[in-house]
Amino acid sequence: MLLLRVLFILSAFVLDRPVFPLPGKNLQKTGLPAKAPALGIKTTGAIPSKSKAQNKKSSLFAKTNSTFQSWGVDPTFKSSWINHHKAWSTFVKKKEIVVAIIDTGIDFNHKYLKGNIHVSEGIPGKSNFGKDFSTMPTKSKRNPSNAAPVDNHGHGTHVAGILKSVFPEVKILPIKYYNPKRSGQENLKSLTQSFEYAIRARVDIINYSGGGPEPSVRELQLLKDAQRKGILVIAAAGNEGANIDQKTHAFYPASYGLSNIVTVMAHDKELSILSSSNWGKRSVDISAPGHRILSSVPHNSSARMTGTSQATAFVSGVAALIKSQYPHFSPHDIKIILRRSAQRVKAFKGKSVTEGKLDAAKALTVAKEYNGKPGKPKSSKRGQKLVEAR
Fold first, then answer.
1. Which residues of the chain have pLDDT under 70?
2. Of 171, 130, 124, whose CA–CA distance to 150 is shortest?
3. How many angstroms from the chain centroid is the CA of residue 101?
4. Residue ranges per structural domain of the chain
């Protein structure tokens, strides 16, 4: 059973296939501009006037648009993007947010990501940029978890780039857990070690896009511990094209149903749910862009990948924005806000709790209404347009 569990974790990576091959396999590369300007997120002061906000919105996009960003953050795709530039015009950063990405590691030297690396101890450097629990013990390395989480796959670096494209000032704690040379039981142990480490590090959010059909007692215990400690978990619905409301198609950890877990499915530019994306009227919370998503991959390159892993990173980014502006919000508060602010899509009917897609601007609006009224946010359904899929 443990072997089956971890093989399905691997399948999530296989199905989040890159449109271009990964490094070492004739990857189509694109370079970072010689000088990438920093995002000017407002940290203090009053909300700017309409004209200033509009100017700021356009200048923000000009500054952040690059070869490492996708249609999910491009206002050209008005019906299917996440509508986050408007959110930036009213966003006030009050707390630095750390998101743990439990994945295949990260390329520490990637120019697009280097300024976002967070470590729980010391200063970020070539040998200190997160944790690697995937390495097998050897005679020379009795404590391999001290190794740096070098990304030899590309998936973790890709997810990190999406997260940054939503919230450029987010801090990322990379944690590597999977090793194809290890047994199923060993890989599951490295996964639980990764959760333990993220919880001890007191991160704000955990982004995890693996999973499988069998629950794990230890994993559930740790996720409940994260819940008690105020840590939000953004989880992928999975890539089997199945209804995970059905017990025979459950996908864990997304299917645990905890109040601190937000489960994400994926859609494309035309607002169609991906045929590979899992869904569930009771089990899935929201949809986000997940088709041919452009983002960073190792060696200062970019590539497109498809899957619920990509969609999950967009939701983590918006959740980080909310938590940064409203640090006192609990994971359940943020989950309610993400649900209430989802923009309903006709084609999503019966596919998730919200039957809608991620909307960053509306999320911050709902968060403002929610502030000071825990458990009683105003419904965003009134006056909400039902988006027709093209």
1. 1-65, 136-146, 372-390
2. 130
3. 8
4. 2-32+44-370
For the chain, the first-to-last Cα distance in angstroms comes to 42
- In Å, how far are 28, 112, 127 from 142, measured between CA atoms? 39, 33, 17
pTM score of the predicted model: 0.83
| Active-site annotation, residues | 103, 155, 309
The number of beta carbons lying within 10 Å of the beta carbon of residue 62 is 9
Q: What is 2-32+44-370's CATH number, 1.10.3720.10, 2.120.10.30, 2.60.40.1760, 3.40.50.200?
A: 3.40.50.200
For residue 253, say if its preceding peptide bond is cis, omega within 30 degrees of 0. Answer: yes
Asked if 246 and 216 count as a contact pair (C-beta separation under 8 A), the reply is no
Helix intervals (H) in 150-183 = 155-166
C-alpha distances in angstroms, 187 versus 91, 212, 303?
39, 13, 27
Q: What is the pLDDT of residues 315-356, one digit of tens each?
A: 999 999 999 999 999 999 999 999 999 999 999 999 999 999
Sign of the CA dihedral running 349, 352, 357, 361: positive
